[in-house]
């Protein structure tokens, strides 16, 4: 017997997944957009340590900047995983639609 698929529920799930991906992507992009500012603030805090390039190296090695980068990478991973889920649901819906179309075509040939 054919298995019943609640296409409305699947579409709702795809919409939720798409919105979750959009939110996760926005969170990642917000961090990515502020990366240079965070580095600049760190560099500024080390300006008394010597020339600019030394201050920048110290800022790049600073634990707070490394923590920021780790948070940014983690946010990117969350966004990527949310995108995979959304893509998978869209693909599943498309496969169901294709299968239904194939079944209709087979019925009309009988």
What attributes characterize this protein structure?
3 helices; 87% helix; 110 residues; mainly alpha; rod-shaped
Describe this structure in words.
The protein is mostly helical and 110 residues long. The protein has helices at residues 7-45, 52-61, 63-109. It is rod-shaped, with a radius of gyration of 24 Å. It starts with 6 loop residues before the first helix and ends with a helix.
Give a topology summary:
Layout: H1 7-45, H2 52-61, H3 63-109
Helix pairs in contact: 1-2, 1-3
Unreliable stretches: none
Shape: rod-shaped
Q: Say how many strands there are.
A: 0
Percentage of helical residues?
over 70%
Q: Describe the biggest sheet?
A: none
Cα end-to-end separation:
19 Å
Counting helices, strands and paired strands, the structural category is: mainly alpha
Determine the mean pLDDT.
Answer: 93
What string, H for helix and E for strand, traces the elements in order? HHH
What's the Cα radius of gyration? 24 Å
Total number of helices: 3
* Strand proportion: under 5%
What's the short version?
This protein is mainly α and 110 residues long. It is built from 3 helices and no strands.
């Amino acid at each position: 017997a054919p298995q019943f698929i609640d296409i409305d529920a699947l579409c709702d799930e795809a919409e939720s997944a798409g919105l979750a991906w959009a939110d996760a992507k926005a969170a990642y992009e917000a961090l990515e957009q502020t990366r240079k500012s965070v580095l600049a603030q760190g560099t500024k805090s080390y300006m008394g340590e010597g020339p600019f390039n030394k201050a920048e190296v110290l800022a790049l090695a600073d634990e707070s900047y490394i923590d920021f980068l780790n948070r940014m990478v983690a946010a990117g991973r969350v966004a990527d995983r949310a995108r995979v889920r959304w893509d998978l649901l869209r693909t599943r819906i498309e496969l169901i639609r294709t299968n239904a179309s194939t079944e209709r075509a087979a019925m009309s040939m009988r």
